[in-house]
Amino acid sequence: MKNVLVTGGAGYIGSHTVVSLVEQGFYPVVVDDLRSSSSLILEGLSTLVKDGYTFHREDVCDLDSMTRLFQEYRFDAVIHFAAYKSVGDSCEEPLKYYHNNLLGLINILGLCRDFCIPKFVFSSSCTVYGEPDEKQVYEHTPKRLPESPYGFTKWMGEQIIEDLHRNVVPFQTLCLRYFNPIGAHPSGMIGELPKGIPNNLLPYITQTATGELSSLTIFGDDYPTPDGTCIRDYVHVCDVADAHVQSLFFSDPNPLCFFNIGTGCGSSVLEMVRLFEQVSGKTLPYTIGKRRKGDITEIFANVNASKNLLGWSAKRTVEDAIRDAWNWEQRRNKTHD
Ligand SMILES: NC(=O)c1ccc[n+]([C@@H]2O[C@H](COP(=O)([O-])OP(=O)(O)OC[C@H]3O[C@@H](n4cnc5c(N)ncnc54)[C@H](O)[C@@H]3O)[C@@H](O)[C@H]2O)c1
Q1: Ligand 1: distance of its center to the CA of 83 in Å?
Q2: Residue 86 beta carbon below 6 angstroms from any ligand 1 atom
Q3: Lowest-confidence pick of 170-174, 206-210, 225-229, 244-248
């Protein structure tokens, strides 16, 4: 059985990846200090994969404890999720983002080099494309300077990795540029757990539907798109999780690869609202607000490389994701009652 270090493995994408890894015969060693997660996710994980993984409550910025962990296990691969992820929050507290997202990455990369770990997978984001000239972006589409400190941490994260690979080729790295992960595990045992008001659309929608939030605000309906709202490439989180497992099977002479992790199709905010109403049978109260600073009009992935080289493509539909997210939200609400 192969040991895989999963930093941030109690988080949204990390926890789904832990499930996929166990299903494929890997042994995930999760490191997470639960700063953005909770024991609810660990309970869900234990229900789903029993003792198929191990958990360490540690901070990836603490180099001494990370070094001890690398001494304790022989890792065959490292998947690095641990980071903060809110665009808005990062504008309020840029130092917090630069400190956590970059120091955590530097620590883990240095240990991968020192302990000769053969494979490293980095959580990047389509935010590295900034506002692109073309709506459909390829991995070779030029990167643009991001709008937020959060975006910069992903942009710089890729730069740090490229620089490391320029001098020494210590291991194979895959930078996975996620588009918009949504949904939850179909069991309803794990899912997205935003702290405070959600930044992402789907938890905002589901929390409005339960009455936890009074109304959904759509940020602008005057964009140059068919219905005036922004278009994004929404991809089921279980598909995103599977892309990480596929990354561990990936072999290529190129030591540094970048892949778009999306479906290749865009949906508008209003389309998502309508789809949610169809799937849930609920009517969503919403208002149209002003455009949100930093929101780009439209972006979706070109998925040729992830399909043909990585051997991964999204299998679930946006409807599947909405149904699973709604199931998770209802279960979570019951657990809170
Ligand atoms: N969800 C998205 O829409 C999205 C899109 C693109 C990229 N990403 C990236 O994917 C990764 C995972 O995102 P997510 O949605 O699962 O986020 P998340 O906040 O749900 O998960 C991150 C996990 O990392 C943990 N963590 C953070 N800092 C830590 C530290 N110093 N030490 C130990 N644990 C720490 C948190 O407690 C949390 O459980 C992040 O790097 C994020 O930037 C996410």
Answers
A1: 4
A2: no
A3: 170-174
In this predicted structure, the answer to whether residue 288 has a pLDDT above a threshold of 80 is yes
CA distance 210 to 92: 29
**DSSP readout, 247-264?**
HHH---S-SEEEEEES-S
Whether residue 14 contacts residue 30, with contact meaning beta carbons closer than 8 Å, is answered with yes
* Active-site residue flag, 150: yes
- Beta strands 77-80 and 119-125: pairing type? parallel
Q: Which two tokens stand for residue 41?
A: 């996710």
What's the pLDDT score for residue 336?
60
- Statement: residue 1 has pLDDT above 80: no
Considering only CA atoms, which of 88, 260, 247 is closest in space to residue 179? 260
228 CB burial (10 A radius; 0-12, 13-18, 19+): middle
Express each pLDDT in 90-107 by its tens digit.
Answer: 999 999 999 999 999 999
Is the pLDDT assigned to residue 337 strictly greater than 60?
no
State the pLDDT at residue 197.
86
Q: Which atom of ligand 1 is nearest to the CA of 58?
A: 33
Other Cβ atoms less than 10 A from the Cβ of 68: the count is 12
Beta carbons within 10 angstroms of residue 308's beta carbon = 10
> What's the CA-to-centroid distance between 225 and ligand 1, angstroms?
30
- Whole-model pTM: value is 0.97
Look at the block and give the residue holding tokens 């590295």: 128
Tokens of 76: 């065959």
Q: For 27-64, write each residue's pLDDT tens digit.
A: 999 999 999 999 999 999 999 999 999 999 999 999 99
Q: Which domains occur in the chain, in start order?
A: 2-183+235-263+303-311 (3.40.50.720)
Give kind and range of the element (H or E) at residue 110.
helix 103-114
Q: In angstroms, what is the span from residue 37 Cα to ligand 1's centroid?
A: 9
Point out the ligand 1 atom lying closest to the alpha carbon of residue 36. 37
The residue whose C-alpha atom lies closest to atom 15 belonging to ligand 1 is 12
Count the Cβ atoms, other than its own, within 10 Å of residue 166: 9
Given a cut of 70, is residue 169 above it in pLDDT? no
**189 CA distance to ligand 1 centroid (A)?**
18
CA-closest residue to ligand 1 atom 44 = 85
